[in-house]
Amino acid sequence: MRAARYYGRGDIRIDDLPEPEVTPGTVGIDVAWCGICGTDLHEYLEGPIFCPQPGQPHPTSGETLPVTLGHEFSGVVYAVGEGVDDIEVGQHVVVEPYIIRDDVDTGPESTDYHLSEGLGFIGLSGRGGGLGEKIAVQRRWVHPIADSVPLDEAALIEPLSVGYHAVQRSGASAGDVALVGGAGPIGLLTSAVLKALGVTVVVSELSPLRRQKALETGVADHALDPREVDVVEEVRRLTGGRGADVAFECSSVQPVLDTLMEALRPTGVLVVIAIWGHRADFDMFKLVMKEIDTRGTIAYVNSHPPVIELVESGKIQLTPFITGKIGLEGLVDEGFDTLIHRNETAVKILVSPSGRGL
Known about the structure:
The chain is α/β, with parallel strands linked by helices. It has two domains: 2-156 and 318-352, Quinone Oxidoreductase, Chain A, domain 1 (Alpha-Beta Complex), CATH 3.90.180; 163-296, NAD(P)-binding Rossmann-like Domain (Rossmann fold). 26% of the residues lie in helices and 26% in strands. The longest helix is centred in the middle third of the chain and has 14 residues, at 157-170.
């Protein structure tokens, strides 16, 4: 089979690999679609970050570079290993792409397995990835999804789960006003979750395409261009002078962080979703004087089942966020290059590793 393998900064190659072995307790999946994530771009430009460097095996997967990339993916079950009796060949599935030690409680009541020591990610830390034609995944991390959900949409359930967990961390509820800084894929999908909960959403974004996408999909009530509008003043106007109840930092850009801090009401909640590759200049005086509650959020924890329910019920529509589809051979030139140098022209680009989806 073919797979996109990451060898190090700026070095991705399409390799021919043996198909994975479907061992006891695992599920063999024909990958249908895999999204390109911002984390993949960070690895390409600045890494290795999450990917294990040569000579430093990942503590749980035991693997080092090269690794197969891709952690936002959907597919169809082609085989089940011994002991797997609740998934059938032919079922549509998505993957919660964790690599977690066997002694960690990952049960339905856990709220912290995503923070466990030695954690890794399929598609970054080893054990295959969604940018390969096939993959074998432990049953715990495989989630069936209704055939009524197209497999291209299903590939967005992983990033949607990131937004869902961030909204959970914020404590936002119906009637609140949220300011989302950055309308890339995570900002838009976080907005989608907020709208599904009855929150009024204001998006701040430079890209006209992404602002339009936020409005035409209905995930934002207001989409502001910070070059043309004083975002803080507009949020205050929209809230009767009070300010936003919650804010989500989805850009890793300093002026966006500053704007969110200023636009929040006293005792408001700031949630940082973006992975910052550098230190931020944080206004501690404003944090103290407004009693801002600042929270980090990473990935998801037992988020996939409720997110799948939101998608299957039709409360969140994912098709509008897919702005490109490519084959594996176009991964760098058509996918990475677009998202790195012309990211204002795209939201989510999906890859068909086998090419059958094109």
